[in-house]
Amino acid sequence: MPTLTEARLTLLRRRIAESGDALSGDALSGVVRPDTGTETAALFGEFGIAERRMWKIYELDPESLSHNIGLVLEFGGDRTVESVIAAAELLVERFDVLRSVVEVDDAGVPRRVPSPRQGHWDATRSVWTWGHDGAVSDSAEIDAVATRMTRTPFDLFTEVPMRLRVSGRDGQVTMILVVHHLAVDDTSWPLLLGTLVSGEWPGDIDADARPAKPDNVTAAEATDAAVRHAVSSWAAADVRHPLSGELPAESAAESWLSPMDDREGIKVSAPVADESLTAFDRVAQTVGATPNALLIGVCSLATFALTGSPDHVLVVPADNRRRPQSPQHIGYCGNIIPMRFRIDPAASVEQTLRDAGSVIYRAMEHSGTDFGPILTALRHQGGRFPVMEIMASVRPAPLRGIAQTDDAPVTCRSVFNGIANYPLSIAFEADDHSTHVEVDHQPGIVPDHIAARATGVLTALVDLIPTALAGTVAELLADLDRRVPA
């Protein structure tokens, strides 16, 4: 975790004071008020519990870029500029969250309200924009425009949480799409991008596959169980920072401020070999885990290989969207699941992966309980903010699973917002054809030698593990060091 300097304390206290909150447990955990457990959050306007947590983070630092998501979509084949614009207009007509701003009442409760917008052409009718002023010339290079749009803060009190820019010619149309994370999560892409790709509104086709919202009693019992799990594992007093191997030095009170700061980051990526993934899927069957869970286990082994910390916590994002929470009405429904891994270098690789699977599944039993109430309970018990240095995730690429036709292909690439939310973030991302690993890090916090090795260590572990199950972790890491020298 970054050093809590006096300058950072001053900044964070000012942000909290400006937001009108005292240093209460609810303010610092991002919980505005208890979730009722009812299905009223299905109605447009009212925030879901995860949105309230993210909104509190936004209020503390509205100039932050950390939750801006930028994509560049390329439409080929028989797609015309007019058809892409028509799809965009259909999207904003149906997707209520994207055409709304936020109001906060006298009690501090945020709520979305509709904010009508119209798309418009520039003077030469060569660039169509929606949700921003479009003050960039058509001659500007697309990646530069996309970076500027992505690295411009959203004023969510006056600005809708999406910006669109469409340019090009028929058969070669480019859209820059920038959204604030308050409005979307990974479960939003099938509805949002599905509309843009197909030109038709698919509706919330995943609703029946989502769990129902629990009643109040069930939710309270689940929160108690999640807190007990936290105290016995990832929130225990002996958890160390994996990058330094040290115990937290701040007081419990100071620790609740230290995570609330963004830092500039660096992102690198590397492909994962298809044949290695095929073999890796067979390993998942051997150890009794899903391939996605096994890749989180790889992230744990990589953390040990990179930092030397055999006992560490990884923070894993998870979906927490419920049946009535349609993406067009409720935006961010993500959750944060910390997991504590303990690695024995003398244990076999197979047993280590089995143990990792057990850790993951025990933690995921509590994925239905939002992180905010758990933090509030920990703080009220006098605990410290959890150690959260490394984020690990396995996620689908935005266009994964979205049907396309040969005569209207669409490609998508991400635009880096320049911010690393955690000192070190590891992500395996898969589309319909390939998988790659992305590593973001905060320079100056993550040592250079760790950052330089990270992608190589992750891809090499996927290559090596299928033939290393019978050997020890120490032997696997020795092979790894020969392949990816320090």
From TrEMBL:
Pfam family, one: Condensation
Superkingdom of the organism of origin: Bacteria
Domain (Condensation): residue spans on this chain: 52-196, 267-439
Protein's name according to its UniProt entry: Condensation domain-containing protein
Species in which this protein is naturally found: Gordonia westfalica
